[in-house]
Design goal:
Elements (H helix, E strand, L loop, with lengths): L8 E7 L5 H10 L3 E3 L7 H9 L7 E5 L11 H10 L5 E6 L2 H11 L11 H11 L1 H5 L3 E4 L5 H12 L8 E8 L10 E4 L20 H8 L2 H23 L4 E8 L5 H15 L3 E6 L10
Amino acid sequence: MAEDSTGLHVLIITGLSGAGKTQTINCLEDLGYYCVDNMPPALLRKFIELSMQSEGKIDKVALVIDIRGGDFFKNLSQSLKELAENHLAYEILFLEASDEVLVRRFKESRRRHPLAPGGRLLDAIKMERSILQELRGQANVILDTSNTSPRELKEKVTELYSESVTGNFAINVVSFGYKMGIPLDCDIMMDVRFLPNPFYDPVMQKMTGENEEVISFVLDSDITKSFLKSFLELLKFLIPHYIHEGKTNLAIAIGCTGGQHRSVVLANYIGQHLKEWEYNVIIRHRDMAKYMVGE
């Protein structure tokens, strides 16, 4: 649910401490959202009703509700149930990151985890993850920020919520290398390691999927041609159904061994076709920079 009959867009931001909620709320404020940080769940319904009475002066609100609320946070499930019973629409954005990344962020910022006033940080992170598991399952969008810089997070949030309010559908196509770890915030993941690998050609070994030699090598393969024909047909079938179900964005991850050759070529090719189908598309190569000369 993204918008009710009054045109009010309600976005609830939650997730793990240290996953980027503050950066997200700052970005949404720049996008024109009326933002409230650390909203007590008991006030949720009243706040939405007041916003609906603003005669259009407030048409989109972003509310951060998380574990910092302490005992108040326990009322969130009941508050969300009341919204549904009163036909008040809302959308949930859930942010998360790996335990290792969260530990590093807390140590770098020297901030205290809300659940670890005197205990071990890692235990607090795992406890919070367990507490939020049910809420995570209700989320409309889940963003894993483990490998996301503040700038990239801002771009993702902007892409999601500057467009979703106007009813546009955004597609993120990302290439990655399996040996670097899989992206956790994707909807469709395609393993293209079955395609011929340019890495074994000494001439192309140090190139990337944005070099013409590599592009030709990958795309000229009969296996690649057959795959792309089938995969694009599948996307042509799936995407309208995702839109019909109210999904505002789709993340497609294309993976090869290192994220250097095949996945880059395929992500660019697929992304370009989706643009030709007049979708709003962002193409990102997560691991390619690791192989670029001078990087």
